[in-house]
Amino acid sequence: MRRTGVPNVVTGDGVHHALSRVEFHDKSIAEEFLQKALDTAPQLLPVEDLDPSYSPLVSLGREIDNIDNLFVSPNGRITLVETKLWRNPEATREVVAQLLDYAARLNSWSYSELEQAVRKALPPAPLGEQSLYEYVAAKCPGAVLPEEQFIDEVQKGLRAGRFLLLIVGDGIRENVETMLGLLHQRPQMLFTFGLVEMQVYESPLFSGHLLLPLVVAQTTEIQRAVVRVVTTGEAKVEVAIDDSTEHKQSSVRRTLNEDLFFAELPDDSTSSMCRDLLDAAVELGALLGWRSSGVSVQLPDPGGSGRPITLYVLSTSGELYTGWISDQLRSVGLDGEIGLEYVRSLAALFKGVGVSARKPDNIARSIRAAELKPRVDDVKALVAETVARIEDSAQASLDSA
């Protein structure tokens, strides 16, 4: 049984004033009270006590595809929050089940789908015209991962269902703690679950409320098995046991290889398309960098610096995205305009893609597999033309040295 004392305000003259607990049935608090509080001050959530790898929290807004509050960390970890004022008559089992349904929905999203959903947060949506990465980088400039790695980590978390799921209420009832058996209904997802009671107090000494967070319950290490049937020629069954130590900050990041990448693509036509793109890039001299949720296509600097120039990245959902190419070209003394023209030409091949307004060497959103398939030859031709221009620029630089 949890026990807490009564908070006091001590004035400068040493007088103590006990605060009054606002009970969860008190209708002076609106239903959206907790949502707004967490959106404004994410640090209210004791994430460090639950799983430090999800901290610090950056709020992505409220009511994102019906999710009360959605957060991301500068290292790409996602937190979902369902807030409840327990005056509501619904069974507490339904609250847990609802949050799990939201997590399952995110588990099916790609990075670009997440970014599009965040733009539709309850107005005023904090993302605005920025990309998701630009927004997070502005909030945590000293902590955010490089853009390519951030996107990679978010994509990996979405695919694995690696989320922090929190129910935050102003009066968590004891029987909510017995609801954790529901979590085993989603064995394919690698989430951490927590219950946070947000105690609400008021005092005649000040207007407003004092919020006091308290961790009520959290999941411990849970081992999950994932069974995959692979049908590439001869069918085989693979059983992967998730190591619970992956949940810890010190865990080793997974890296794909070629076989894993193609095994995780959604269908044969997407696999064939990716094979075509990658084979063509390799013929041009590009190297393939296998990452945790995709493959990066990198051209070695023709000038001999040894630094790579990223032409594009393919994810395990078959999406293509770009970024960084102009900066990378400039960093090795080559013409950054080549990268800008490449991105503009790539975006022009696909309706509704466009170029990022704030980062012109990046397309505004990922290109989905269904969009890519009919334009594969055009993309290959554009990549070949761009590689030739980069090589010419490098040769001109060498000749003038």
Ends distance: 76 Å
Give the averaged pLDDT, no decimals: 82
Topology order in helix (H) and strand (E) letters: EEEHHEEEHHHHEEEEEHHEEEEHHHH
Q: Structural class of the secondary elements?
A: alpha+beta
Largest sheet descriptor: 7 strands, mixed
The total domain count is 2
Explain what you see.
With 401 residues, this protein is an alpha+beta fold. The protein has two domains: 15-218, no CATH class; 255-396. The protein contains twelve helices and 15 strands. The protein has helices spanning 33-40, 47-50, 92-107, 111-119, 132-139, 147-160, 258-264, 268-283, 325-331, 336-348, 369-372, 376-400; strands at residues 8-10, 16-18, 20-21, 58-64, 67-72, 78-84, 163-169, 192-203, 206-218, 225-232, 234-241, 287-290, 294-300, 308-315, 320-321. The strands form four sheets. Strands 3, 4, 5, 6, 7, 8 and 9 form a seven-stranded mixed sheet that branches. Strands 12-13-14-15 form a four-stranded antiparallel sheet. Helix 9 (325-331) runs antiparallel to helix 10 (336-348). The relative contact order is 0.10. Residues 220-227 and 241-253 have low confidence and may be disordered.
Features of this protein?
401 residues; alpha+beta; seven-stranded mixed sheet; 12 helices; 24% strand
